[in-house]
Amino acid sequence: MNEVADVMTDPSPKYGRDHGWHASFVRVNTDSVGGWTSERGLVDSNQFDAWIENFLVPYANHLKTRGLYLVLSATGPMVVNIDGDQSKNTNQGTQERMMTFWERVSSAPGVKDADNIMFELMNEPVMIESEPGNGEYGMAEPIYFERFTKWLQPIIDVVRDTGANNVIWVPTLEWQGSPHQWLDYPFTGENIGVAVHYYPAYGGVFDIPRKVLDLWGRQYRQVAKRWPMIITEMFWTPMPDDPRNLVNGTTEGFGNSIKQIIDDEGNVSFMIGFIGDLLDDLDESRPSEADLSEREGAQAYFDWMPELAETSIRSYGYRPVPGRFEAEQYESMKNLRVESNSENFSNRHIAYITSDSWAKYLIDVKESGTYTATFRVATDVQVDNDILIKDGSGKTLATFTVDSTKTNAWQDWYTDSVTIELSEGKQELTLEFKGDSEYLFNIDWIELEATDI
Q1: What is the separation, in whole angstroms, between the first and last Cα of the chain?
Q2: Which of 20, 42, 380, 393 has its CA 20 to 30 A from that of 275?
Q3: Which of 195, 109, 106 is nearest to 156 (CA)?
Q4: How is residue 366 annotated by DSSP?
Q5: Using an 8 Å Cβ cutoff, are 285 and 411 in contact?
Q6: Which of the residues in the chain have pLDDT under 50?
Q7: 411 alpha carbon, distance to own chain's centre
Q8: Where exactly are the structural domains of the chain?
């Protein structure tokens, strides 16, 4: 999974094109989670906590290193299918499991308030009972839309009751194809958007541009104008032998039409296909060695990458100086990773720093003058290594030396400072790392404060 993230954020030319991938988020379905079974739900709390600590948090940290968001979508053992019918999946049993899952996940150190982890509360709710326990399942009618809001709101609330402010994406009934339900029966809460799916089979639009546009206008557009929207499943390729006909469409008919819609909306994020739809031969090849799929959706998505990269710039913006900023909140970097602090998984730092690697930041200096640059650093090597502080022109403003006698482990932190001269205004600051060991040091944060001289 880490290698897939590396490939999907590598802009170097691939597959005979003059560009690479520029993905901005990864969606992970919880089809298999430690401590959970489909039959009984949560059966081992310790194993579930270990899954969060040993898989979810490190994976999210790797995605952070690559500039990626994680959309975590609850499915698999969190879902109870009545009588084995996967369409009867929005029920009391599923609600109970979802509340248990999201309460523990959203309160976990390293997940709670992590700025690149978002929660898609459920994958593809389909039908719901008109009243809890009456066995009368349905969809596409107001009685079921209203009931779904009452069913989902407690799951939203259990997340917010933990104090977590991660972005929440709420799904819809009908395989996430009826977002218009939220207009009449809205959810409540802040920092929440709507997660939808859009396939050629939805509404029978297939390859007819007019129908693609009409369906969007009826069921999606007004929701996208009211809340942020994310399309977490969408794909197309001519596939007349598909029994469900789910993805049967072409780029000319379906793909270009949906892209026109998304471009016009300006408030819709999207992904196209699963990784197996985009890359060929993953059973036989590493992701970095796999070819681009010949499927039309994969070809179009890759061709759109340069344009998408220009319209989805990720930035922390200009950090005010005087002030402190986290080392992992860089604009760009070379050859380093993001890790969680052992003292508190909710705090992160940059690690695996090698000589000649670097990290760039944007700062906005209140006034020209002399500033103290303080670093919180740690190392486990027995030699001193350096941090070169450079301005946007590449001029070295100062050198901070990490003193190996003041720290004895990779997270045995100490602080120290150097002075630098900064000019007023917005500018780029680069930290360039130099040394003789394989890995040099870790950096937790940097603080720039005016010096009285």
Answers
A1: 52
A2: 42
A3: 106
A4: S
A5: no
A6: none
A7: 26
A8: 2-311, 319-450
H/E stretch holding 10 reads none
pLDDT digits 0-9 by tens, 117-135: 999 999 999 999 999 999 9
Tokens of 165: 């402010």
**Does the N-terminal peptide bond of residue 322 adopt cis geometry, omega within 30 degrees of 0?**
yes
- N residues, the chain: 453
Pair 45, 35: CB distance under 8 Å: yes
Q: Does domain 319-450 have CATH number 3.40.630.10?
A: no
CA 303 to chain centre: 22
Neighbouring residues of 427: CB distance < 8 A, sequence distance ≥ 6: 362, 363, 364, 365, 391, 392
What is the CATH superfamily name and number for domain 2-311? Glycosidases (3.20.20.80)
pTM for the full model? 0.89
Contacts (Cβ under 8 Å, ≥6 apart) of 368: 421, 422, 423, 424
Mode of pairing for the β-strands spanning 69-73 and 25-29:
parallel
Q: Provide DSSP, 31-72.
A: SS-TTEETTTEE--HHHHHHHIIIIIHHHHHHHHHTT-EEEE
Q: Which two tokens stand for residue 117?
A: 């982890």
191/209 Cα distance (integer angstroms)? 33
**Interatomic CA distance for residues 29 and 63, integer angstroms:** 16
Long-range contacts of 128-137 (CB under 8 A, 24+ apart): 128/90, 128/91, 128/173, 129/90, 129/91, 132/92, 133/92, 137/82, 137/87, 137/88
Spell out the residues 6+ positions from residue 210 whose beta carbon is closer than 8 angstroms to its own. Answer: none
pLDDT tens digit sequence for 262-303: 888 888 999 999 999 999 989 889 999 999 999 999 999 999
